[in-house]
Amino acid sequence: MILVLISYIFNYIFYKKYIKKIFFQMRNLSKNNKIIEYLKSINLCYQTTISEKSPIILEKSFYIGIDPSGSKIHVGHLVNFLLGLELYNLGMKIIIVIGNFTGQIGDPTFKNTARKAIDNITIKEYADNIKIVIKKILKNIQIKKYKILNNNDWLKNVKLSEYVEVLKVFNIKTLTQSQIFNKRNEDNPIYLHEMSYFTIQAYDFYYLWKKYNCELQIGGQDQWINMTAGITLIKTKGGNANVITVPLITDNSDNKISKTSTNSHIYFFDLQKTYIYNYINMYKFEEKVFTYFGKIFNTNNREKIIDSIFLTVYNKKLLSTVKKIYRYKYEAINKLNQKETENIDSYNEDNYTIKNIIKKFTHIEKSHHVNDVLKRGIFFNNKIINNIKDFYFYTKNDINYIQISEYWYIYKYNF
């Protein structure tokens, strides 16, 4: 009887410690393969370290890092949040790290020159603004549980002796082979503080692994060296970790969309501007950007792509409002000759300027909102006319007239 009991206890412990562990590893491995395959199919995975030997456990945490080098969120950041949403829905916990410390250095990856130093006060101001936007995004994409951390909180306390031990894990060859400084020359040298950036980001990953059970980092494909450095450091501590990178967003000339890109302002969500302004800006995106997001949202329709991006930052009510405004179009029924226009008094009290007509039919009261509508031009006969200062409207005997420069039309408006 005692032998049977001992045998039962032994088998139970053996099952719990080994067989059950193998079972869950196999289950996670099966899931991992399907997850990566799915993420690649929707353009949310470019490269990953996840493999049979290094699976991810869906009960663990992952993190997204953002340096506050500016006060606005870039469309590239949104891709990381969309990937984060997929992982969150699979059961993983999300951590957002705002890099107040690393932001003072500036990521040097593939930069032509060293980044200009940003003072602590400006960094904090940028970080506070970014935090507001991040919370809006997380709310709109239905991520309810999350942590937002500041890496200055732990990096400011790292002793020099501890950091030297981190440096011992890496070598210069890693950087030179990666070619992240291949755009530098004698006139634009590489500085030591820039070379330290990837080791500090590695420490961030290690710290999160140790304190928050974080085993996955996600970011852009140009961050591969910085991100995998964290894996290297964690392995020296006996741990396991992985990364997933998302494809870079590029313009029609294959240049990375960034703050230094041509017309870069159109790729940022500026909350100091109106939601109308940010919506209209997206219609200026280049073709490759629409193609990129089209794969994520599974559509080639530009309006649907814009709507989907807009909903990551703003709510459905604002989308409904802005779409009504944006769809306000004019269609000429017929053009009037000079004799027909003689009976039209374009300067009587019923005349409307373009601002007045927008206010009347869209119920927009604030002048700066009206100005945002005007910036995108007026749709007239399916063409956008940007020179709108010569627009005049007139109603007589229930007939609507519109004057564009010296020409008059009978028109109707459509939503």
Number of strands: 15
Which structural class do the helices and strands define?
alpha/beta
Range of strand content: 15-25%
Oligomeric state of the chains present here: single chain
Task: Name the overall outline.
Answer: elongated
Q: Describe the strand arrangement of the main beta sheet, using strand numbers.
A: 10-13-14-15-9-11-12
Mean pLDDT: 77
Protein described:
With 415 residues, this protein is of the alpha/beta class. The protein has 16 helices and 15 strands. The strands form 3 sheets. It has a 7-stranded mixed β-sheet with strand order 10-13-14-15-9-11-12. Helix 8 crosses helix 9 (224-236) and helix 11 crosses helix 12.
What distinguishing features does this structure have?
415 residues, 7-stranded mixed beta sheet, 6-stranded mixed beta sheet, 15 strands
Characterize this entry briefly.
With 415 residues, the protein is of the alpha/beta class. It is built from 16 helices and 15 strands.
Task: Note the topology.
Elements lengths: L1 H40 L5 E2 L12 E6 L6 E2 H15 L3 E6 L21 H21 L5 E5 L1 H4 L4 H8 L4 H7 L13 H4 L1 H16 L1 E7 L3 H13 L5 E5 L21 E2 L5 H8 L4 H11 L4 H12 L2 H11 L2 E7 L2 H4 L10 E2 H9 L4 H9 L2 E3 L2 E3 L5 E6 L2 E6 L2 E8 L1
Parallel strand pairs: 2-4, 2-6, 4-5, 6-7, 9-11
Antiparallel strand pairs: 1-7, 3-8, 9-15, 10-13, 11-12, 13-14, 14-15
Helix pairs in contact: 8-9, 11-12
